[in-house]
Write a structure and sequence with these properties.
The structure holds two protein chains of two kinds.
Chain A (H helix, E strand, L loop, with lengths): L1 H10 L8 E9 L7 E2 L4 E5 L5 E6 L5 E6 L3 E7 L8 E2 L6 E6 L5 E9 L7 H33 L6 H15 L11 H36 L4 H23 L15 E3 L2 E3 L1 H23 L1 H11 L1 H6 L4 H26 L6 H16 L4 H21 L7 H15 L13
Parallel strand pairs in A: 1-9
Antiparallel strand pairs in A: 1-2, 1-5, 3-4, 3-6, 6-8, 7-9, 10-11
Chain B lengths: L1 H12 L1 H19 L7 H19 L7 H19 L4 H20 L4 H4 L5 E2 L3 H5 L10 E3 L2 E3 L1 H26 L1 H11 L1 H6 L4 H27 L1 E2 L6 H14 L6 H23 L20 H16 L17
Antiparallel strand pairs in B: 1-4, 2-3
Helix pairs in contact in B: 1-13, 2-8, 2-11, 2-12, 2-13, 3-4, 3-5, 3-11, 4-11, 8-11, 9-11, 12-13, 12-14
The chains are: A alpha+beta, B mainly alpha.
């Protein structure tokens, strides 16, 4: 008898030997990502007669342990009012009957899904659509400012610019596993870790861009090889780099290790995750800095002088080659930053840069080839156009990039110099 | 080794090589003779391929009746591309053509049009007329090519394809010797000079775009017939870049350039693929797995193509057999 009491005391921290533990776990699986615990979900446990025997709330691991008076079968019912916004439990799975075994307890697992979006009226989604469009436009803009500056100073349509974007994102994803500042997923620890990795990624993109200028483009310019050849060489180099990335990074898109899904915060009619808001602000700050650099600093004025007329610039004592190298470095850094942000919006994949490259070309063509601020205007136009297309033709969202490309062709038909381009003969 | 070489030989004369050869003949008209930077040859090939597959699948046409459809559809596509861009600087044409090819690929990929285009799976079973037209001396036989056996269907498509290659090569050869071809080349060399002599440069460029586009369309048609499947995956942007590699390899602005280029290109690609597969299959000579393994060796061909294209353009822009005087790069 004594031994029996001691035995139950060892294996049960409850006072009564008949009581059993029922563990409730609530999880949510975002599309293409790992399961995540859901915190703060309330539930009740009823016995077969319908009497409530226990209640509880899940903790930060999505787990709650409830004590039930005996073994047998119990019904666990999720309180749907306590579910976080945007998540829902599939119809008819709110409650589950669990068998609790003596000595072993029982488990009830719930998997949540995305809440079916309410059939919101189109017009109420418009502010959100415009916000997303501007944000997407800003991301394209930081990538394509470099493309546009390179075109303006050297005349080269650099098809390898997409790979600079990919390198920024891929190296960030790789570097995020190299060292540990914080092992946390999400939160400030994850943010610090990802920031450190992003700096490495951006440095790699900058180095790649600068190395190409020093090793390929500068020698080609010195040999007097023309722009068409250089454009085709950039296509060849882009293929080499793209498939090297595919060989060693893999074909599967991945998320950054620190990635976690976030709930929306509401600003007026616009719901936005803190991540999207922060990356949007970072993109905006980066663009403002570039604008300041171009308009106010000596280095920026030199860049504008070279893009206006390289020969004239070099006769006034500007070191043209030095300026062009600066442009490649600046363009590489911005493309890398764009890649890091784009990798947060979508996933990091080996061909992400190639996929966005056409959007970048559409943006700089729309804005006026070779006009740095044209790239900004064109990018915002492309971003808005893509999102508005997805909003208006909600059945045809897979064609949203097609809309932007069509818009580019139409603009060329009626205003070939682009929105901000100088009116000149371009034929 | 003889297995590898016979694979390579088949690669050099097979249906895929023929399709790319036709696309390259068309691109050579654009780029080699007229100096047009067409980056959308994949789009022309896609138009040609779907112009064959869609009428047969959707309206039960005879496949032979789709030949005029290929011509009309690629011509219309060329006009649509040319009107906004041919008056502009050459890089505008490059960006618009690459965008237009991508628009078409997205259009045929969308699930919303699945009953018409078959979405990403594409269209199958439109080749019965070709199957039934196999001549008696081929029917039911396999043709041995060294260690490789070619089925009667493949052999028949190859014969049709090489006939088209010969036909279009002769057409291009004759046209480029004509006064019309000389104007094209003068536009390539100096557009303003041609204009100052009273030539309607826009019209010449447009006819060149249409002619090369139609030839590229037949390339796409042969490709889908050979693969018995028309799907957007065959017409990605890579298609255009491979075609450029073929034109540059064989020699820009030469009639035999695309033929030599396509055969060399697909021989090299097939042999490389075959060797790498052999070196990563876990027996015999093996490459270290940190360089490549059986899961990723197939990407190496693209690295080879990209690197080869870049090196050729830098160090030998006229191609292996090209003529330095005829090279189309940077004449303006």
């Amino acid at each position: 008898m004594l031994a029996a009491v001691a035995f139950t005391a060892l294996f049960s921290d409850t006072a009564h030997a008949d009581e059993e533990t029922l563990q409730v776990r609530v999880q949510f699986t975002p599309e293409g990502a790992k399961k995540e615990p859901v915190e703060g979900v309330g539930f009740t446990i009823t016995d077969p007669s319908g009497a409530v025997v226990a209640e509880g709330v899940t903790d930060d691991k999505g787990v709650a342990r409830a004590t039930v008076p005996s073994d047998g079968s119990f019904t666990v019912t999720i309180d749907t009012d306590t579910l976080p916004d945007g998540l829902a439990i599939p119809e008819g799975q709110e409650s589950r009957t669990v068998t609790v075994t003596a000595g072993l307890g029982g488990n009830a697992n719930f998997n949540l899904g995305q809440a079916p979006s309410e059939p919101a009226s189109k017009i109420s989604l418009l502010p959100k659509t415009i916000f997303n469009g501007i944000r997407f436009g800003l991301v394209i803009a930081i990538m394509s400012v470099g493309l546009s500056l390179i075109y303006a100073t050297t005349g080269l349509s650099n098809f390898a610019h997409g790979e600079t974007v990919t390198i920024g994102a891929v190296m960030t994803a790789v570097a995020s596993g190299w060292f540990t500042i914080s092992s946390a997923t999400g939160g400030w620890g994850g943010f610090a870790q990802l920031t450190a990795a992003a700096i490495i990624g951006i440095l790699c993109a900058t180095a790649f861009s600068g190395a190409l200028e020093l090793a390929v483009w500068r020698p080609m310019r010195r040999r007097g090889i023309g722009l068409t050849s250089m454009m085709i060489v950039s296509i060849g180099l882009a293929m080499v780099v793209r498939f090297i990335i595919q060989m060693y990074y893999g074909s599967q898109p991945k998320s950054y290790a620190q990635f976690s899904s976030q709930t929306n915060i509401n600003i007026g009619p616009i719901g936005v995750t803190p991540r999207d808001l922060l990356t949007g602000i970072i993109a905006l700050i980066a663009l403002c800095s570039v604008a300041y650099l171009l308009m106010k600093t000596r280095a920026g004025k030199a860049i504008r002088a070279v893009s206006d007329n390289p020969d004239l610039a070099s006769t006034t004592g500007i070191n043209t080659e030095r300026v062009i190298l600066n442009v490649w470095l600046l363009g590489g850094a911005l493309a890398g930053l764009g890649g890091v942000i784009y990798g947060l919006d979508e996933q990091v994949s080996w061909n992400m840069g190639t996929k966005i490259l056409l959007m970048m070309f559409a943006a700089i063509t729309l804005g006026g080839l070779g006009r740095p601020f044209g790239a900004l205007v064109g990018s915002l136009a492309v971003g808005l156009f893509v999102q508005l297309w997805a909003w208006w033709f909600s059945e045809y969202t897979d064609l949203k990039t097609m809309g932007a490309l069509l818009a580019m062709i139409l603009v060329l038909l009626f205003r070939p110099q682009g929105i901000l381009g100088k009116k000149e003969r371009v034929g | 080794m003889s297995q590898t070489l016979s694979n390579g030989l088949f690669g050099a004369i097979g249906v895929v090589a023929i399709a790319y050869c036709l696309a390259a003949i068309g691109l050579n008209v654009h780029f080699g003779y007229t100096g047009l930077l067409n980056f959308g040859q994949a789009g022309f090939a896609l138009v040609g391929g779907y112009a064959v597959a869609m009428p047969v699948m959707n309206w039960q046409w005879s496949i032979w009746a789709t030949i005029p459809v290929v011509i009309v559809a690629s011509s219309v596509f060329a006009l649509l591309l040319g009107i906004p861009t041919l008056r502009l600087r050459s890089d505008y044409l490059a960006i618009v053509t690459i965008a237009a090819a991508e628009i078409l690929r997205l259009l045929v990929s969308t699930p919303n049009l699945k009953n018409v285009t078959g979405s990403t799976d594409g269209i199958n079973s439109f080749t019965n007329d070709i199957q039934n037209s196999i001549p008696g001396f081929l029917k039911g036989r396999t043709v041995p090519l060294w260690e490789k056996n070619i089925s009667d269907y493949e052999m028949w498509v190859m014969m049709l394809g090489w006939f088209l290659v010969a036909l279009f090569s002769v057409v291009v050869w004759a046209l480029m010797r004509s006064p019309w071809g000389r104007v094209l080349r003068s536009i390539r060399e100096d557009e303003d000079a041609a204009r100052s002599l009273g030539k309607n440069v826009f019209a010449y460029k447009m006819t060149s775009l249409v002619l090369g586009g139609v030839i590229g369309g037949f390339g796409g048609a042969i490709l889908v017939i050979g693969q018995r499947n028309a799907s957007p995956g065959s017409f990605q942007t890579q298609f255009t870049f491979l075609t450029y590699a073929i034109v540059v390899l064989g020699g820009v602005g030469k009639v035999k350039g695309p033929i030599v280029g396509a055969m060399m290109f697909w021989f090299l690609i097939t042999v490389t693929d075959s060797l790498l597969a052999d070196w990563t299959d876990g027996s015999g000579f093996q490459l270290p797995t940190w360089i490549m393994d059986s899961s990723n060796f197939s990407f190496f061909r693209w690295i080879l193509v990209g690197g080869g294209l870049a090196l050729l353009v830098i160090f030998r822009p006229q191609g292996i057999f090209g003529d330095k005087k005829e090279q189309a790069f940077d004449v303006r």
